[in-house]
Design goal:
The chain has 401 residues and is α/β, with parallel strands linked by helices. It contains 17 helices and 12 strands. The strands form 2 sheets. A 6-stranded parallel sheet has the order 3-2-1-4-5-6, sandwiched between helices. Strands 9-8-7-10-11-12 form a 6-stranded parallel sheet, sandwiched between helices. The radius of gyration is 22 Å and the shape is globular.
Length: 401
C-alpha cells in the first residue's frame, strides 16, 4: 500500500510535466484484444498525463477513427504490424521535434523501435513495455534458423534495455522474467480491464430467440474467439455433445472466424451436434448482446508451443454482463477467472471435466446467477480500464522523478 500511495503522490507532483509517448503496434480501427488494450489505455492516459501522443500503424479507416477517438494519434507506415524496424526512422524524426518524459510500448517490437530512435537521437528516454504472452514465445521465422536467431536477438535486446514491464498476468510475468534473464527486473502486473458501461447486464431475449431457433427455451453456451486451435473449442464441442444428453435443447454459439473453422465445423458434424451449434463469423450486433443472450460463457484455451492465452479479455467482458465463465487452467486465464467465485477452471484438453462443469452450472441457475453477480462486482471493484490506466500512469509518473 505504501508503494501505491507513493506512486499516487508522485503522479500528483509530476502531473503538470509528464509527457508520454505511447507506441502501439496494434491499434483500432483494426479489431482485436491487443488493439482494445492499447486504445482503452490510451484513453485513460490522455486524462492522466499532461501530454500523450500515440504512434500507431496506418490502416484502412484510421483517419476516420482518429478524428473521433479523442486520442492524439500519429500514424506511420509499417512492415507488418510491429513497427520494430520500420518505426525507427520516423520515431527518430519525431523525437528530434518533440520531447517526452517516458515511453510506453504495447509490445516489445515497438519498444525496440523507440529505444533505437532515442539512441540515434541521443535522447534519455525511459521505455516501459507491456507483455501479453504470445509475443514472448513467438517464432515466426523458425523455418529460417539464421533469421529466427536475429529475431530472437532483437527481442532480447529490447527486453533487456527496458526500464520496466507491464505484463497482463502472473503467467506472462513468469515468461517475461525468463526472457529478460537479468538479476533485477521491474515487473508490475497490470491485468486487462473492461468498460462496465459498454458490457453490462441487459435484456437480449430477442437475440437469444433468434440464435436458439428450434432449440428455443433451452440453455445457451457461448464462445467468442478467433478460431485457432489454441482456443480449445474442439474440447468444448466434445463436451457439448455430452451436455446434450442432459440438456437436449441446449444451443452452443461460436462467435468468431479463423483458420480452424473448417476443422471445427467437421467435428461438429462428426459429433452429430450441428443442429444445435451456430457458427457466426461476424455480426453487426454489439458484442455485449451475445454475452447477455447466453447462460454460460466457455473457452477452454490451451497452451501450445509458441502460443499462449496471456489473459483472456473475453472472460471479463462476459463477467461484466453478469455471466458465469468457464476456462482452462492454462496461460493467464487463472488471473481472469477466480475459480469458484466468478467462474470455474478446468484442466485443459479434458472434455469430461468440462462436461461436469457445464452440467453443474446449467443444472443450478441460482449458482449461475451468483457467479455472474460476483464477476461483475469484481470488475467494478478492480478490473476496469480505469483501474489499469491508474496503475500504469502512477508507474510512468514515478519513473520521471
Amino acid at each position: 500500500m505504501r508503494v501505491r500511495n507513493a506512486c499516487a503522490r508522485a503522479l500528483e507532483l509530476e502531473e503538470d510535466r509528464v509527457r508520454v509517448l505511447m507506441v502501439a503496434s496494434n491499434f483500432p480501427p483494426v479489431i482485436g484484444g491487443i488493439q482494445t488494450y492499447a486504445f482503452e489505455l490510451a484513453r485513460g492516459l490522455v486524462r492522466r498525463s499532461s501530454e500523450l501522443l500515440v504512434v500507431a500503424p496506418k490502416s484502412e479507416g484510421a483517419r476516420e477513427f482518429d478524428a473521433t477517438s479523442g486520442v492524439p494519434t500519429l500514424r506511420m507506415a509499417s512492415i507488418g504490424d510491429d513497427l520494430a524496424l520500420s518505426g525507427i526512422l520516423p520515431l527518430s524524426l519525431l523525437l528530434r521535434r518533440r520531447a517526452f518524459d517516458v515511453a510506453f510500448a504495447t509490445h516489445w517490437a515497438p519498444g525496440f523501435a523507440v529505444q533505437e530512435a532515442a539512441r540515434v537521437c541521443g535522447v534519455d528516454l525511459r521505455v516501459f513495455i507491456a507483455a501479453h504472452g504470445k509475443e514472448l514465445l513467438h517464432r515466426p521465422l523458425a523455418a529460417m534458423p539464421f533469421a529466427q536467431a536475429m529475431y530472437d536477438r532483437v527481442r532480447r535486446v529490447a527486453l533487456q534495455r527496458a526500464q520496466g514491464f507491464f505484463p497482463v498476468s502472473q503467467r506472462t510475468a513468469q515468461l517475461l522474467a525468463a526472457a529478460v534473464a537479468r538479476s533485477s527486473v521491474d515487473i508490475c502486473v497490470v491485468s486487462n480491464g473492461v468498460d462496465p458501461t459498454q458490457f453490462q447486464p441487459s435484456d437480449a431475449s430477442g437475440l437469444r430467440a433468434d440464435l436458439a431457433g428450434p432449440s428455443a427455451g433451452g440453455p445457451m453456451l457461448l464462445s467468442v474467439a478467433r478460431l485457432v486451435t489454441r482456443k480449445g473449442l474442439d474440447t468444448a464441442l466434445h463436451a457439448f455433445s455430452e451436455v446434450l444428453k442432459e440438456h437436449p435443447s441446449a444451443t452452443y454459439v461460436i462467435l468468431g472466424d479463423g483458420p480452424d473453422y473448417g476443422r471445427l465445423a467437421r467435428l461438429a458434424s462428426e459429433l452429430g451436434v450441428t443442429r444445435n451449434v451456430s457458427f457466426i463469423a461476424r455480426s453487426t450486433r454489439p458484442l455485449a448482446d451475445y454475452y447477455n443472450a447466453c447462460d454460460v460463457f466457455v473457452m477452454p484455451a490451451r497452451e501450445e508451443p509458441g502460443d499462449i492465452e496471456g489473459f483472456g479479455l473475453v472472460f471479463l467482458e462476459a463477467g461484466a454482463c453478469g455471466k458465469p465463465v468457464i476456462g482452462a487452467r492454462a496461460g493467464g486465464v487463472t488471473d481472469a477467472i477466480q475459480d469458484g467465485v466468478t467462474g470455474l477452471l478446468v484442466p485443459p484438453d479434458d472434455p469430461e471435466a468440462l462436461t461436469r462443469a457445464l452440467n453443474g452450472l446449467l443444472g443450478d441457475p441460482e449458482w449461475c446467477a451468483a457467479l455472474g453477480r460476483a464477476a461483475r462486482a469484481r470488475i467494478l471493484r478492480e478490473c476496469t480500464w480505469d483501474h489499469a490506466a491508474d496503475r500504469i500512469a502512477e508507474r510512468l509518473a514515478g519513473a520521471t522523478i
